[in-house]
Amino acid sequence: MTVPGDITTVATTYGAILLGTCFGCALTGVVFVQCILYYKLYPGDYAWTKFLVFVVWALDLTHTILIIVTSWQSVITGFNKPQDMDLIPPALGLSVAVTAGRHVPCPLLLSPTESGNNWYIALPVIILAFCRLLAACCSTSEIIRLKHYSLFIRPYPAWIFTTGVTLSASVEIIITMTMIIFLGSRKTGFANMNHIINSLVLYTLETGSVTSIVTVASLICWLIMRHNLIFLGMHFAIAKLYANSLLATLNTRKRLRIDRMYSSEREHTGGLAAGLPYTGVNKSLVSQRILRALLQLRRAHQMQLNVNVETTVVSKIDEGFDDFDRDIEEQR
What we know:
Number of strands: 0
Number of helices: 11
Radius of gyration: 30 Å
Order of helices and strands: HHHHHHHHHHH
Shape: elongated
Strand content: under 5%
């Protein structure tokens, strides 16, 4: 840390903690809404998946409480006490471990049960996630033991935290790239289905890249600016972004299923639904109404075709009987 009481020091320590806490609390509300949407949209999901979503929400709430306590102890309890700016609140060390614990649920969702027995996809990510958790637990124990920033940034404890953040960025990048490759291999010969897969790949890239960029930025700030807490403000947001990315991926499945049904029906009807307008108001309900209308139209067309076939067969049979009657009359 720099000279106690310096304006730059206050801005890059207390200011970074305060901004990171505010941003993290805002994202906590988004995580809560995502969890409610998940349980409302997917009541029939596996109990294991529901449990992991609950774990994500519980860890997010715990992390929010810890960063609020950290901000309170740093900004309020330490107000007008520049000699205490070097002290590390115990809650900060616990928040580091909770942040790492948030990386475990997603690899478990990519486990062989969920990914079609693809061990080569799930196992490396699970190992890296648990290594990240182990490094974070070591960092937490060192933070609680040393109690001072100036001692924690020394080479010995510092390389443990560096390893943990590096593993965190690696897990994010590997998960994003694995999902992109996995989805790309599922492309078919149907243009509409390929369009849905391309949309999902783009969505995965967008959500995964945001978390990866913030994690890498936090690592860079830690490596080049250890004497301030800008890296810590970003570290507060990593856990929130990770949870939102995971829950958003789960919650988009229903929308993708409706698009797939709509695309399949459009293939069967020869593109009849391609020109229907979209108002932009609740696209899921609009898609369901379109599907119902198309199914009713298709059933009506099949019923009309069956009636026409039956009428034709009956008329042909009647004509045969008329010819038979005329032949009998001529023989008489």
